[in-house]
Q: What sequence folds into this?
């Protein structure tokens, strides 16, 4: 059975854990009735927490969503990011690898979120030879590097612009620009840290907003390439239990009683959101007509196969068309 929207089953839960991209945020706007549904849950006395596989800190995500029209206190209660977990580990000096028990210097693939490392004592270096570990930053391509990939000119999506509106940072629809550095890391034997396990994210066109949003490569793709090559990768975020443990402790510190039988995780990705919910022993709710799962099904995959790939029984999943309905 597939429910039309979240409201049809909301009476079964008191604590709602929301993924962001593909659930209420489409990449360039909110899905129909998603904010209204979240707001109604708050009005009913439910607790709404957003758990995001964002390597940025929660404070920055809160500010970003505030500008977009999603307001803490009215539309949701808490926002937690995997970047928060990374920063906690850095501050506590609990980052350890089998090959290095006391890492201090890191090399960045892509672009780091500087605030996560600020004031932690870890030092960014410019070469792999000087690094103790590698950090999987956001896999952006910078304007000065575009000329290296003339055959990929239709695979880049402008993200940030200068005052002249000239793009200076680009999203990429392919991981090809990072193959070389990934191979170098694998050859070096260095371990890696990743604070965003998502393979892709849907982003809009900032210079041409009328164009549909597209799936761009994210940190999790780079981390998986490293893993496939034999590198040790330490990850924070869904589907790992660490982000749920962190969230539950945070909520308990705010006086919220955690009853897992009355808690659900609403997501759009089987590999991260649904697998993570099962790992955390809460009810998994999958949006099947928005986000990553909808895209995968549109490309010929089946929900049965997506679940099989993660050793999940399809019967374990509560399915809805979307949060707010179509």
A:
């Amino acid at each position: 059975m597939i429910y039309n929207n979240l409201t049809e089953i909301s009476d079964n839960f008191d604590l709602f854990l929301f993924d962001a991209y593909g659930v209420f945020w489409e990449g360039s706007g909110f899905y129909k009735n998603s904010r209204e549904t979240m707001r109604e849950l708050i009005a009913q006395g439910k607790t709404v927490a957003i758990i995001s596989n964002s390597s940025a800190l929660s404070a920055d995500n809160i500010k970003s969503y505030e500008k977009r029209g999603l307001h803490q206190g009215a539309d949701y209660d808490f926002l937690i990011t995997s970047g928060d977990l990374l920063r906690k580990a850095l501050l506590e000096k609990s980052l350890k690898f089998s090959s290095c028990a006391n890492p201090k210097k890191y090399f960045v693939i892509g672009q780091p979120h500087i605030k996560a490392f600020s004031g932690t004592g870890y030092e960014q270096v410019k070469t792999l030879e000087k690094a103790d570990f590698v950090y999987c930053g956001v896999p952006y391509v910078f304007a000065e590097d575009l000329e290296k990939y003339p055959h990929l000119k239709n695979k880049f999506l402008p993200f940030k612009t200068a005052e002249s509106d000239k793009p200076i940072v680009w999203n990429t629809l392919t991981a090809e620009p990072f193959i070389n550095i990934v191979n170098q890391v694998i050859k070096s034997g260095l371990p890696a840290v990743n604070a965003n396990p998502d393979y892709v994210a849907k982003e809009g066109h900032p210079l041409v907003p009328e164009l549909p949003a597209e799936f761009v490569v994210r940190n999790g793709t780079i981390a998986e390439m490293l893993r496939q090559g034999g590198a040790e990768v330490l990850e924070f975020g869904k589907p790992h239990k660490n982000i749920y443990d962190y969230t539950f402790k945070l909520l308990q510190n705010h006086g919220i009683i955690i009853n897992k039988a009355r808690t659900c995780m609403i997501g759009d990705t089987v590999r991260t959101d649904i697998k993570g919910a099962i790992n955390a022993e809460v009810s998994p709710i999958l949006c099947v007509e928005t986000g990553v799962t909808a895209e995968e099904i549109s490309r010929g995959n089946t929900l049965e196969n997506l679940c099989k790939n993660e050793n999940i029984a399809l019967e374990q999943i509560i399915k809805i068309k979307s949060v707010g309905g179509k």
Summary: The chain has a mean pLDDT of 94. The longest helix spans residues 241-253. The two ends are 16 Å apart (CA to CA). The chain is about 30% helix and 20% strand.
